Automatic annotation (TrEMBL):
<keyword id="KW-0804">Transcription</keyword>
<dbReference type="GO" id="GO:0008270">
    <property type="term" value="F:zinc ion binding"/>
</dbReference>
<dbReference type="GO" id="GO:0005524">
    <property type="term" value="F:ATP binding"/>
</dbReference>
<dbReference type="InterPro" id="IPR005144">
    <property type="entry name" value="ATP-cone_dom"/>
</dbReference>
<dbReference type="InterPro" id="IPR003796">
    <property type="entry name" value="RNR_NrdR-like"/>
</dbReference>
<comment type="similarity">
    <text>Belongs to the NrdR family.</text>
</comment>
<keyword id="KW-0479">Metal-binding</keyword>
<keyword id="KW-0862">Zinc</keyword>
<protein>
    <recommendedName>
        <fullName>Transcriptional repressor NrdR</fullName>
    </recommendedName>
</protein>
<feature type="domain" description="ATP-cone">
    <location>
        <begin position="46"/>
        <end position="136"/>
    </location>
</feature>
<keyword id="KW-0678">Repressor</keyword>
<keyword id="KW-0805">Transcription regulation</keyword>
<feature type="zinc finger region">
    <location>
        <begin position="3"/>
        <end position="34"/>
    </location>
</feature>
<comment type="function">
    <text>Negatively regulates transcription of bacterial ribonucleotide reductase nrd genes and operons by binding to NrdR-boxes.</text>
</comment>
<dbReference type="Pfam" id="PF03477">
    <property type="entry name" value="ATP-cone"/>
</dbReference>
<dbReference type="InterPro" id="IPR055173">
    <property type="entry name" value="NrdR-like_N"/>
</dbReference>
<keyword id="KW-0863">Zinc-finger</keyword>
Length: 162
């Protein structure tokens, strides 16, 4: 870490603290050359591998904009979408990988979106899972009904349906 004042190529960590969201670390550093102190913020990078093979940094804003289209006309607020994007990022970071397929992000969106708004969930799933017929919609709606009737999660309801 270069000192921002004298450009010395080394520094000493004096104090480290995690941020409130737990996703970054703030470090207080001191330059051994000039003695001045400065702060750095470190975050673990999370990259998305798109279908085309292009790798780009994960963006909560992209999650929000993708889900916002499915939530159009639904009683979902911007803060609801921000919380959903945070849940998605947290679930992806819990996998411990630094790169993730765009497809995995879509899967991570489905569960919190279903909890937020079932109509928006069906809209998103219809595009994401490429529903081709009314039967695909009927199957998804049946799973939601089984989930409501039994109190099971969608994954467990899917197994009951089979």
């Amino acid at each position: 870490m270069f000192c921002p004042f004298c450009r010395h190529p080394d520094s000493r960590v004096i104090d480290s603290r995690t941020s409130d969201d737990g996703l970054s670390i703030r470090r207080r550093r001191q330059c051994p050359e000039c003695g001045r102190r400065f702060s750095t913020t470190e975050t673990a990078s999370l990259n998305v591998i798109k279908r085309s093979g292009v790798v780009e940094p994960f963006s909560r804003d992209k999650v929000v904009s993708g889900v916002r289209k499915a939530c159009q006309g639904r009683p979902v607020t911007d803060s609801d979408l921000a919380i959903l994007a945070q849940k998605v990022e947290e679930s992806i970071r819990q996998t411990g990988t630094s790169q993730i397929d765009a497809n995995e992000i879509g899967l991570a969106i489905l569960t919190p979106l279903r909890e937020l708004d079932e109509v928006a969930y069906l809209r998103f799933a219809s595009v994401y899972q490429a529903f081709n017929s009314l039967e695909d919609f009927e199957s998804a709606i049946s799973l939601l009904r089984v989930e409501h009737a039994t109190g099971l999660s969608a994954d467990a309801a899917d197994n009951v349906d089979r």
